[in-house]
Recover the amino acids of this structure.
């Protein structure tokens, strides 16, 4: 639906330029009258087109899941606590699956796997400084920091996946959003 | 005027456009003749700078970005919004067109947003955000052919992911303290002055797309004082100037996106088409400095 709005806007825009320009201006360079192109990346392969919301969510999911990997990798080197070690293994498994699937869908959509706007500091993403702090922490401090980062990650991914479930268009993508919500809520409940 | 109008209204709209077109033609003739006179006898007291401004106060903060994360409220780092008072993660052009604005002129219902600045983790909002629309950085014949920015255009400038000053176009300086050299990262402003951020948006449009997958590449910066053949349409250059009521040790500052060099700006153009067109014709093309009302100062 968003794509339709964009397309309609573009069509009306070009129509407006064409009709308005003769009287509008003294020395006018008429913009090239190429066919209007909506912002939606084209795709032919997948059943159900990808909307800008789908693309943005997939890029964000790929970035967020990837950013968590080094944190999960640290767990066995910084703690011997079996509860934390088990949880890290479980989160890693679903995290890897979400990363693989989101990249796959971005490939189908013909979209880049990175979002040009995601900064260093995004909600639910561990920053370089925070990762350094984790590397030098151990014992209770490590558990406390790890719990905070995992909670932030799982809460944020659930929140954004809920928005994708509601506003997304491509069925495979909204299905991935549903998977993310279910598994990450389970992880949240399992946090010590 | 309302670009999102249903197509069934087009005939009536076309008549209106034709009427407006005729009026503009008359106005254009008048302008050209006055400009000619001004050139012949340079007594005109206009300021020869191609410029019209919108001065906007802070509206609201949300972790939303309807350009980069459309339909995904809460997906972004914190943004501070200026202009339209309604912008959130689900905003589209019709929402903006019918909204109110914090800008002078109030007809500018565009939405402008930037990563929030924090001082010791407390948000600080600019005392004023000025959005200059300029005809500069290209040859004068290119300025004379400037086209209006199309309504509905979405555009991001700057690099939120910059990992250092080298991949950034941010510029930080101090208001009323020109002795402090500008930098791509935060600068240490003397007490009593204000920290300023400048950001220039690209001014060469591909003439076709209101957005692009990276929200940048449908526009380009000029090359050798002209627009490249891939982006041949010259539009006003948007210059974002933010003045923050803070000074002193920059180690207390951070942006929601990271260090100072991650400064970026998002622009969702919702200027009424006629208001934008009038300003381009009366201020940019003839190189005249205009005020908020789009009339010569």
């Amino acid at each position: 639906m968003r794509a339709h709005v964009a397309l309609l806007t573009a069509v009306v825009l070009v129509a407006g330029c064409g009709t308005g320009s003769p009287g509008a201006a003294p020395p006018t360079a008429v913009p090239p009258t190429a066919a209007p192109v909506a912002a939606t990346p084209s795709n032919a392969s997948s059943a159900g087109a990808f909307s800008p919301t789908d693309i943005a969510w997939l890029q964000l999911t790929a970035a967020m899941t990837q950013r968590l990997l080094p944190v999960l990798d640290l767990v066995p080197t910084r703690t011997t606590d079996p509860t934390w070690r088990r949880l890290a293994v479980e989160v890693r498994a679903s995290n890897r699956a979400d990363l693989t699937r989101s990249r796959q869908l971005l490939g189908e959509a013909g979209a880049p796997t990175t979002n040009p706007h995601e900064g260093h500091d995004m909600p639910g993403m561990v920053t370089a400084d925070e990762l350094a702090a984790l590397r030098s922490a151990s014992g209770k401090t490590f558990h406390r920091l790890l719990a905070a980062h995992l909670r932030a990650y799982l809460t944020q991914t659930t929140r954004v996946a809920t928005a994708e479930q509601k506003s997304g268009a491509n069925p495979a993508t909204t299905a991935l959003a549903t998977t993310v919500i279910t598994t990450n809520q389970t992880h949240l409940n399992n946090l010590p | 005027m309302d670009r999102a109008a249903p197509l069934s209204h087009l005939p009536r709209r076309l008549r209106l456009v034709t009427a407006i077109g005729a009026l503009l033609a008359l106005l254009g003739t008048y302008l050209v003749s006055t400009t000619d006179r001004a050139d012949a006898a340079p007594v005109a007291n206009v300021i020869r700078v191609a410029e019209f401004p919108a001065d906007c106060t802070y509206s609201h903060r949300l972790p939303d970005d309807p350009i980069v994360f459309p339909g995904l409220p809460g997906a972004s780092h914190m943004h501070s919004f200026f202009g339209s008072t309604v912008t959130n993660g689900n905003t589209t052009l019709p929402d903006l067109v019918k909204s109110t604005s914090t800008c002078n002129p109030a007809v500018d219902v565009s939405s402008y947003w930037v990563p929030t600045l924090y001082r010791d983790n407390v948000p600080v909002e600019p005392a004023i955000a000025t959005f200059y629309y300029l005809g500069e950085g290209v040859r004068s014949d290119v300025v004379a052919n400037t086209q209006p920015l199309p309504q509905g255009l979405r555009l991001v400038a700057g690099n939120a992911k910059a990992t250092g000053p080298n991949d950034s176009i941010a510029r930080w300086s101090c208001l009323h303290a020109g002795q402090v050299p500008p930098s791509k990262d935060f600068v240490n402003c003397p007490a009593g002055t204000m920290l300023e951020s400048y950001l220039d948006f690209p001014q060469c449009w591909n003439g076709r797309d209101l957005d692009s997958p990276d929200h940048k590449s449908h526009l380009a910066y000029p090359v050798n004082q002209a627009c490249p053949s891939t982006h041949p349409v010259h539009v006003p250059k948007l210059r974002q100037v933010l003045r923050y009521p803070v000074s002193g040790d920059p180690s207390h500052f951070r942006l929601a996106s990271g260090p100072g060099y991650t400064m970026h700006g998002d622009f969702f153009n919702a200027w009424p088409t006629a208001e934008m067109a009038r300003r381009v014709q009366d201020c940019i093309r003839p190189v005249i400095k205009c005020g908020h009302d789009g009339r010569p100062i």
Summary: Chain B has two domains: 1-45, 48-284. Chain B is about 20% helix and 25% strand. The radius of gyration of chain B is 20 Å.
